[in-house]
Amino acid sequence: MVKRKFVSTRVLQPGMKIDQAILDKTGRELIAKGAYLDDFQIEYLQKKSIGGIYVAEGEPDPDEIHSLEANLPAYTKELIQKSRVEDKSKVTLSSEVIKRVGEGVQFLYDNVESENFLEATNNVTGELVKAIESNNAIAVDINLIKVSDEYTFKHSVDVATMGMIIGRNYGLSAEEIRDIGVSGLLHDLGKSNIPLEILNKPGKLDDNEFALMKQHSLFGFKILKEKNAFNEDIMKGVLQHHEKMNGKGYPLGVNGDAISKFAKILSVADIYDALVTERPYKKGFPKREALEMIFGMSLELDNKAISSFMNSVIIFPVDSYVTLSNGETGKVVANNPGYPMRPVVIGFKTGKKYNLLEDIDCASMVIE
């Protein structure tokens, strides 16, 4: 629920959302209602000896947004319908599949020595393959993946699912997509050899603890090699998913073409999911910031894998409601391929079409 609050200009902070328009003596609008204040605007208000202004606090109530949309002018509703482009087919996991996958992954990590390990791996991977093939999915809504509150299991399924979708856009064959799913599910298997007090340590690891943690991908590789049931691509994905293109990764410090394509893909999925996931010792980054960080890692990550990832993820699904940095609430009507942070939005207040990728006027605009 958004609340209107009167605040003294002496205590205004950058990022506060103004809930009134500021006009000059001629009636010209200097600061628009709904704008997010910056230092320059705050300084202006203080210099003009304006005692206080109204600001908006809180998030819009969904019912308010629905009501707002229902009462839009006919031309705005028509523009929404004419501009609407369905998202690329997305992978979806039903509640039953989520339950089976979650239980299956937990079994794998808790029963590394089980004689049913390979069968369980194939069953879990098969569930994910069916979910992708059922609607020929080539994208993933990264807001929806969640199989468990336990980090290791959730993270493993996230990485496997994203890895398979990225792999499709990367150009992997159907068999390779299945195999990268296996590699993603098992990429952190070696953590079963790391003491729990290190795995669950709430603070920063010391040098010795971190050195041991960095061995988990090697431990996982050895576990799979001893089973003599997994091919080289799967095992290299597990071994190398922390390697970097510039040679500054671990455990081997290899670079460039020495890193397998499975590892290049899984590295992107692994880093993204780790960035956005909240842990006891850190807050998760907002998805937009995490994507920007991935985009900026061109020296460390494979550029083709980054590009395939950007073509695979959907942050703002078509028909979702968003608030733009100019203060306007609107509806996403299309996504621009390869640019998940720059969709097309129809504003409810102005009836304006904002193409955040192609319109020069939107160059500095972001979704809040």
Describe the structure in your own words:
- This protein has helices at residues 39-47, 62-70, 74-83, 95-110, 117-133, 151-170, 174-185, 196-199, 207-213, 216-227, 232-240, 261-276, 287-295, 303-310; strands at 3-8, 17-18, 22-23, 29-31, 52-57, 140-141, 313-314, 321-323, 329-336, 339-347, 353-355.
- With 368 residues, it is of the alpha+beta class.
- The protein has three domains: 1-58, Molybdopterin biosynthesis moea protein, domain 2, CATH 3.90.105; 61-87 and 318-368, no CATH class; 95-314, Hypothetical protein af1432, CATH 1.10.3210.10.
- Strands 8-9-10-11 form a four-stranded antiparallel beta sheet, with helices on one face. The chain has a three-stranded antiparallel beta sheet with strand order 1-5-2, with no helix packed on it. Strands 3-4 form a two-stranded antiparallel ribbon.
- A hairpin with a 5-residue loop joins strand 3 (22-23) and strand 4 (29-31).
- 35% of the residues are buried.
- The mean pLDDT is 89.
Please identify the oligomeric state. single chain
Biggest sheet, open or closed, and with what strands and sense?
4 strands, antiparallel
The SS-based structural class is alpha+beta
Write down the Rg. 24 Å
Number of strands: 11
Approximate strand percentage: 5-15%
The fourth-level CATH homologous superfamily of the largest domain is: Hypothetical protein af1432
Helix count equals 14
> What's the average pLDDT?
89
Question: What is the H/E order?
Answer: EEEEHEHHHHEHHHHHHHHHEEEEE
Uncertain spans, ≥5 residues at pLDDT below 50? none
